[in-house]
Amino acid sequence: MIKNLQLKKTAISLCLSTTLGLSLTGCGNKQVFDFNKSFNVAVEPNGDSISVVPIYGYADYTGAQIQFRTKDGLVVLSGTQDLGLLNVTNQESLDDYTNALKDEDDEINYYSTEIQYRDNFNKTIIDLQYTFNKAIILTDGTVVLTDITTWRDYEDDDKIQIKLSDGTCLLKEIEDVKLIDDTYATENAAYNYALTLAGSPEKVKQLKK
Fold first, then answer.
1. Could you tell me where the DSSP H helices lie in 27-141?
2. Backbone phi and psi for residue 100, each to the nearest 5 degrees, phi listed first
3. Mean pLDDT of all residues in 157-173
4. Which of 44, 54, 64, 63 is CA-nearest to residue 136?
5. Mean pLDDT over all residues of the chain?
6. CA nearest neighbour of 181 among 126, 112, 125, 128
7. For residues 71 and 112, is the Cβ–Cβ distance under 8 A?
8. How do 75-79 and 49-54 pair as beta strands?
9. DSSP line for 136-198
């Protein structure tokens, strides 16, 4: 009788362990629950430039948008078509990834080399960032940096509308526009980020206020 009880306990334990294992991993190697809430680098190819930006916080959304924040206070809201957030543990891993994206004539441009190689939880759970004062518009061969007065996005569409400081309204795909808030960032932070996307100063165009 005691032996039978022990066998039943063992069977129940095995059953619970198997069920728990399946619920955590799902079928194959699919991860059912997302436990990774730490990313330290944003990487984005754009033309012949590969932008590498160390980040210190991020937020994601149900749509095709990601927001990230740099150590010096720059906040960027971007589409996700080419942008990727990485959680890398060393420079070698980052070099392997960026070099895999690189064509012969491409350049890798760092916003900063100060990367936090620690697995810290840095996801913004409650997003209160609704103010953006600049926009970066990606065009063929150039990157346009401009001040904006208002913006809006749409729940059922991946377009974004911005109003420039001269009153011009622009409606474009979110993949072609990045919203910027540099209110509390260091001087020229927005320009320096635009430069990583453009690859050279000649390809960065700043609209006059």
1. 91-101
2. -70, -25
3. 93
4. 44
5. 85
6. 128
7. yes
8. unpaired
9. EEEETTEEEEEEEEEEEEETTEEEEEEEETTS-EEEEEGGGEEEEE-TTSPTTHHHHHHHHHH
The one-letter code for the residue type at 160 is I
Tokens of residue 144, six digits: 């346009």
| Pair of tokens at residue 150 | 């208002």
Tokens of 128: 């209160």
Which residue in the block uniquely carries the two structure tokens 């330290």?
40
- How is the chain split into domains, by residue range? 1-32, 41-206
| Structural Rg of the chain based on CA atoms | 22
Sheet with strand 41-46: strands edge to edge: 84-86, 41-46, 49-54, 107-110
pLDDT at 122: 64
Residues 139-157: what's their mean pLDDT?
90
Please count the other Cβ atoms lying within 10 Å of the Cβ belonging to residue 117: 14
In this predicted structure, the answer to whether residue 49 has a pLDDT above a threshold of 60 is yes
